Structures are given as C-alpha cells and as structure tokens.
Amino acid sequence: MSAEQRKLFDSDPEPWEADDQSQQLVASVVISAGGAKEFDYLVPNQLRESIEAGRRVNVPLGRTDRLVVGYCVRLENRLAGQRRLKPVHSMIDQRSLLSPAMLRLTRWIADHYLCDWAAVLDAVVPAGVRGGAGTRLATLLSVDREAVKRLADSEEKLSPKQREVLKELSQSSEPMTPGELARAARCTQGPVTALRRKGLIRARSGRISTMRPEPAPPAKEKHLLLNPDQERALRTILDAMHSRRHRTILIHGVTGSGKTEVYIQAIQEVINFGRQAIVLVPEISLTPQTVERFRGRFPSVAVLHSHLSDSERHWHWQRIAEGAVSVVVGARSAVFAPAPNLGLIVLDEEHESSFKQDSAPRYNARDVALARAKAENIPLVLGSATPALESWHRAKSGEFELVEMPRRVLDRPLPTVGTIDLRAERGRACSRGAVSRQLHAAISAALDAGGQVILLLNRRGFSTHIQCSACGHVVRCPECDIALTHHRKEEIALCHYCDYEVPAPSSCPACGFVGIRYSGLGTQRLEAEVRARFPNVLCLRMDTDTMQSHGSHQRALDAFRSGKVRILLGTQMIAKGLDFPNVTLVGVVNADTALHLPDFRAAERTFQLVTQVAGRTGRGPKGGRVLVQTFSPDHPAIRAAVRHDYNAFAAGELPIREMLRYPPFSSMIRLVVRGPVEPVVSGFAKHIVEQIEAAFKRGEVDARVLGPAPCPFARLKGKHRFQIQVQGNDGDLLRAAVAEATANLDPPDAVQWIVDVDPVDML
I need a labelling partner for 120 at 20 to 30 A (CA). Which of 270, 501, 580, 586 fits? Predict the structure, then answer.
C-alpha cells in the first residue's frame, strides 16, 4: 500500500463536541482489500432493522468521503462520544454472507497466519458471491400482513383469483417474483397487479439467480458391507458424533483399505440427523471417479473446484447456505462452505501439501478445518495412508484419536515392491534410456497377461536442461536463473516458474557450437521412449501440459478405464485418487526427483509419493507389482516405502526432526523478502531479523532466527529472494513477537515481503 493510500485509511473525521450522551448503534467495518484496520460508523435509523454482522455495506472513507465496500464485523450500542461518526451509507447484501461462527473463524485465521482480516474475508466469500454473478435484479413480492388484517375488518371483497394469489404468497417462505406468483396461483398478472394496488402485497427490488442447472440424478448405490477394520473406524466416528463434542480422529488406512466407504456411511448418519457434511480432498484427487462415489450415494451434493465459473460458485454457495445441500465435496477453499447445520468435516489425503494456500491468506485447510470443527463442536476426520508427521505425532501424543486400518478390503494383499538400483543399471553397456531392462521386462509381462501399467515420473518436459558440450553453458531463464526445460512437441525451451520461453536452440547461445546437448528426463522423453519400445500399445501421458483443456482429465481416465489405453504415464496427478482393478504393474521411473531437495520434508514427500502410487495397483483379482527405480535404494524413505511400513518411516524420521527442532517439535514461521536489487533486498532482510530478535528479547521468547540467506531458488521472475526462518516452542508467543516486529516495517521501493506461518514450501 502506498503512503498516499495509507493516508486515506488513517484519516479520521473531524472531531467536535457531542450534543448529548445518548446511545448510538455503531458498526465496526473492515474495508474490502483495505488491510487489517477496523473503522467505526454510525448506523442510521433507516438501517437499524436490516444491518447485521456478516453483511457488506457501502461506507464513506477518507477526507473525500469516497464510497467503498466493507464488511460489518461487529455491532454495539455506545454512548455518543467526543467524535461524530460518519454514517453507513447503504447495505449491499440482502442477507448476511458470514454467520457469527464464520466471522470468528476469519478473525482466527487473520491472527494465526498474521495476515490482514480483509484478505481473509475476501478469500472466504468468493468473488462470484461478492459480485452477484449469475443473478439479476427483479421485483420481489411479499404479503403485507398488517394490510391483510385491516382487510379482514373491512367490507372489501377479493375475487377468487386474488384470494388464491394471497394464499400462495402467504405460504411461501421466500419472496416471489410476479411471474412465479402468477404461475403458482395459475392466473394472469391481473390479480397480482390488483393486490399490489390495494396495498396487500409489498414489492421491493432484489437479486435472483439466473442459474438453472440440471437436477442431480437420484442416488442409487447401496451401502457396502464393512470389514472389521472399517466397522471399528465407523464406530469411532459415530461415537464422536453422538457425544456432541469435538474430537479429531486420524484414520491411518493403507491404500485400498476402504476409507471412503467409512466416510460415506458416517456422512449418512450426519444427514439422518438433519445436518450437513464437508469433505475436503486435494484438487488433484477431485476426479470424476471420486465425485461419483458421493453423488451415487447422496441426492444433494455440491462439488466445489477451481474450474467452476463465478455464476456456478455463487449458485452452489446460495444452496449450501440455504441448507439445500447435504454434502459439500471440494478442494481447499471448500472448508469455508457456508453450511448452517454442519455436523462433520472430513479431510481425505490429509498429508497433501496442496491443502496449504501459497498466496495470502496462506492458510492450511487442515488446520482451519480443525479450528472450525472445534468452534462448532463437531468431529473432524483426517484420513491418509501416509499421514503428515505433524498429525501422526499429535495422534501418538493423545491429542488426536488414532484408528488403524492395516488391511485392504476383501483381504487383498498389498502389492510386492522391488527396487532397481540405477547405479548398477547405468554401468551396463546394454542399458539405455529411462526404462531399465528389468522394468521393460515387467511391462512386457504385464501387457502380455492382459494387465495395464502406470509409470510415474514427477518431472514435466522432454529434457530438463540444455547444455553445450564445448563450453559447458547451460541455457537458463534470464528472470529466474533456472535451467530451461525442453518441450519437444512445441520445440521450445520453457521456464516452469515464470513461463518464459524461447525457441529450442540448435547451437550454443554462448559460443555458437552446434553440438548442444539436451539431457535430463521429463515425461515427454519418457513418453517417446515408451512409444518406441511398445509401438503397438496405446500409451497416454497425463501432466499439466496435456491436461489443460476442459474435460481432458476425465477423457484420459475414461480411456484408461475402458482398457483402450494400456500404459498411463505422467506426474503426481496419476499417483492419487485412482482405482483401476486391471492395473497390475506400477513403475516409478525415478524416485529421487524430490529426495535431495533442500527441504526438511523431502524424505517425507518421497515416501508419501512412492507409497501412494504403489497403491494404484493390486486392487483387482489379478494382484499387482511395483518396481521403483532409484539411485538411493538404501535411503530410509525408499526402504520404508518398499516395505509399506509407515511406522518404521515415522520412527526413523521423527527423532531427526526433534534433534533439529523442526515441526512437529516446534512452530515455524518463514519470511521471504524479494526485490530487483540484491543488496537492497539483503539489507532489508537483515533489518527484519534485527526487529524480530529485538521483539524476542523484549518478550523473553525462547526462539531462534536463521538467516537471512538466499532462498534455494534465489531468483524468480526477475526478483532476488532472501529467506528468514523463525522457530520456537510456543507458537502463540512466536506469532505475537513476529507480528510486533513487522507491524511498522517500511520496505524500500520495489521490495516486497511475505510472512508464511507453518510453511509447507521451503524453496
């Protein structure tokens, strides 16, 4: 915010003596996109009956009294003070957008994640809702009850049609448009107009939805019989529901153990009590297959995802708020669904990093779900085959309840997992390409037996770097100092961080040598190799390059499910949320892509990814097998994943975290400073560290500050980046001290800084 903009927000109305000490109704307003500050406004008499916390208002701001939009967050009666307050100009919304409980939740998010309350409010209320997308202005009619009483005492008579119109409108719980009322009363507009003239019907202007989505098909699927593990998990959830108090339950179930069926039967019990449920899943797992599991069991399901239009999102929001939706299934932001009768929140694949928002407000949906469930006194269910170590630690320490589901449904065995040591393979003269001899033979055997194959490589592109073999020059992004990736189909060299692209060079840009080398492995190169090795087998690649068009994801999965596609290869989007009984082989082409990144969660993420993709096979009667190609077969994360042994991985990793004071044994805040001039950025980062250390000293906070130091990706989009890492045992004290230290920072021109509480991305 510029200095001029700050003046507008900091300016107060002119003070003068109050005439008396009478009571006045005061609205505290947070200006949309206006920061953290609250402004007090007088509620004029004509708005006293309609204003309520959670509704948006138009208010005058600054010396020019320009009208801005704000959220009314609090109402209270006060004695008239020494300053005359500016009045609220007008109401914007017909009803409150945020319940008192949701307002409290937004305040908690702002405090916990050290961000502006306005940013949280704008994130919780979607843009389509704020803008009234998919609605139009219309005349809304309602009965004037007092006029109808006076009519009963008079001798004036109504025609039969007029009486029918009054009856229909009186029985409606919502105002009706003239057209809706005439259709309901089976008459023309004449009787409606006559009643309006007599003053028996009141009219006002309001917004109505123009959305008319097709009705959802009725639920058809029946409950499945549960095995003992599933019954125990369901009983634990139902006990929590019936106790009418908050409990957090972590379901640790291997892939294919039937966790989704447990969720569904628990949700059915919630609906039987007349309440609603929210199911959060990672966006990458929000597949048609997942959605159909819920739509096939419940008649009123709202699915919230990133591809919804503003109009569709607004329509779903209204139906959820009205209680017309029983189950909300969605990605991260669905945690804010305005369910008035919420009875259960489920977070599936709770370990997924995509539950953390990477822009302000930088909330984690798992922690927000926990805060909401506590506030509403309802159970929270977390489920995963590979829980986040933070959740596992809380379960083991007794804060969460742990339910184990160690067996697959129908007692199907987990797939056998073998490793292929790429160090030995690279030493063989006959071994060339990304697919080793062993993996090639396994693919051939699986295809010959009528099975299907999934190949995982979590790296896009054809070649991951372009290097001159004469002078050693690597073709880099000029904005990010990161090697460009070759995309052969488009014949471009692309930066995956800022989308900078140039034509793929045929000679070295530095020395002109024509023997430039394209090396490294991406999904495009893997696809080309697989097609060359198996020319008569249909192969399909799924990554963000191929899945950009509308419906492409579903078309790809449908082709694989039908058996038309025999080999499916791609990035992590093929590792989760897929259930194909005919998959008999999964190959992890390189398990080391994230293993050695400078991130304390690198081993955990590698274990999770290998375990999750391994779970895509062995789900049918044919069984399954997994082969993991790696240069690090003895790494503890790889060894534990090969054995499907989460307990062993956690037992080895947690002591290392504790020794280094990493989460879950400390709270962490990461600050990133960025700007175009490196010395200026570095200098401001040092100033922030000085302010934080001084705040720790004043508050006697037991914490440590690491940095400033260049980020692992030290330059992105033309900006140099420095990071500061703050760790401490008491999260509340840590946040308070950092908030105090950063409250009045004045960064140099073009320098920006962010605060990331409980960071997930350390790059």
Answer: 270
